[in-house]
Amino acid sequence: MKKVLLFLVALVTIVGFVGCGGATTDTTAPTQTLRIFQNKVEIDATLTAYAEAWGLANDVDVEVITCGGDSCQYGTQILAEFQSANQPDIFVIEGMGGYNEYQNNILALTGEEWLTDTDLEFMVDGVAYGFPVAVEGWGMGYNAEILEDAGVDPATLTTLAAYETAFAAIQSYYDANSMTDYAVVSMAAASGMTWVTGLHNFNGYLSGGLGYSDSSVIDDLNDGVVNTARLTAYADWVELLFNYADETILLEGTYDTQVGKFASGKAAFIHQGNWIDPNLLSYFDENGGQFEMGYAPHASAAGTNDSIFVSAPSYYVINKNSDSIDVAKAFLNDLASTTAGHEYMVNDAGMVPAFKSVTLVPAGPLSQAVVEWMGEGKIYAWWQNDMPSGFGMDTLGPIYTNFASGNLTKEQFIAAVTDAIEAIQ
After folding, report:
1. CA 276, CA 370: separation in Å to the nearest integer?
2. What whole-number distance in Å separates Cα of residue 379 and Cα of residue 373?
3. Residue 140: beta bridge partners?
4. Could you read off the pLDDT of 368-391 as tens digits, one per residue?
5. Residue (of 58, 64, 49) closest to 28 by Cα position
6. Residue range(s) of every CATH 3.40.190.10 domain in the chain
7. CATH assignment of 138-310+379-422, given 3.40.1160.10, 3.40.190.10, 2.60.120.10, 3.40.50.300?
8. Confidence at residue 28, expressed as pLDDT on a 0 to 100 scale
9. Is the pLDDT of residue 398 over 90?
10. Which of 3, 4, 274, 340 could form a disulfide with 366 if both were Cys (CB 3.0 to 4.6 A apart)?
11. How far is CA 421 from CA 193, 204, 231, in A?
């Protein structure tokens, strides 16, 4: 993990360059196929456009299938895909949980060219299996204009007490100005959004306040051991977020309504990562009203929290049963090594790239904020994807939903999470 931290810090100063690559356009009918099954709804259109252009240039019929967000459960659907006659050639895993679930379908990628251009490949026992989709990060995304008008300095938001004061000040500002349709926090905890709570929010329990390579809490969790003091402090943070969240979005909201509330300038904070940049930029292009924004740390651990959560969280892997393995390898190599691939990752998809040779800087405001936090070395790890498969969304997720709806008290929330962890072993 130490080399991951060094790479993330160094990424913002990379000055290398890579030239164009790839084959020339061929107008004949495609003779090969490539089926990509991926989970990021926000890049569906851009990835499809890039894949189709790559396919035309390389005589390949490429199909992109997207399953994610609140409308499609990736873990369920990918299992169905493996049972079909038309299995994906490339699909996505997120950490050890995904690898353990699908390892019988995953091809080792030893010797691939792109491996020399990243330190963030997914490896198991020294063998590379996963191509890092991007570097991603999240904290509490904030609307700088609202915070300034309410007298809140985002630099002070490092403790639970500071957030309690800030949230109250923002709500008072809304009340004083009859801003009845504004929210302090835009966050969803409905059944289709348990990845926000059971994965991303819960990562605050797993890594908040810890060194980047400190895996002690996730190791304990996977052994069925709970840190009760840490969980109690974390529950205070969850309770505060729920108390100040837009109630309709919290209990019924979708990905689009959660992001839309923030994009419209009617939420002071959003609980999402820099992957929402394409949605934000699209909204601003259509409606105007762009505002300054950034990230503040989650106050998910007791004491001072001075970092945001940053990692390469998801990976493209190749189906070892595919009939198009060589095509799949070529697609990934070109994505990492060509100008067109770099343009897609940074300028089109708005991602922070995981490859050292990429010199482009993302235009998205939250991606730029992630790069800034990386440059300062202020980052916490992502451990949520190392939990048992389905534990975050399917086991923890409903507990959050019940807590948000008032069906559980904070003490009952703590007890339910404790029981869930202890049941792992």
Report:
1. 12
2. 7
3. 296
4. 999 899 889 899 999 998 899 899
5. 58
6. 2-135+312-358, 138-310+379-422
7. 3.40.190.10
8. 52
9. yes
10. 274
11. 21, 15, 11
Q: Could you identify the residue written with the tokens 């989709």?
A: 133
Q: Domain 2-135+312-358 belongs to what architecture?
A: 3-Layer(aba) Sandwich (3.40)
Backbone angles phi, psi at 145, to 5 degrees: -70, -45
The residue with tokens 């895993």 is: 93
Tokens 């975050």 label which residue? Answer: 392
pLDDT band of residue 29 (cuts 50, 70, 90) is low
Token pair 């204009």 in the structure block, residue: 145
Indicate the burial class of 33 (C-beta count within 10 angstroms; 0-12, 13-18, 19 or more): middle
Q: How confident is the model at residue 7 (pLDDT cuts 50, 70, 90)?
A: very low
Q: How far apart are CA 16 and CA 359, in angstroms?
A: 7
Closest to 374 in 3D by CA, of 361, 385, 384: 361
* pLDDT value at residue 96: 86
Confirm if 308 and 138 have CB atoms less than 8 A apart: yes
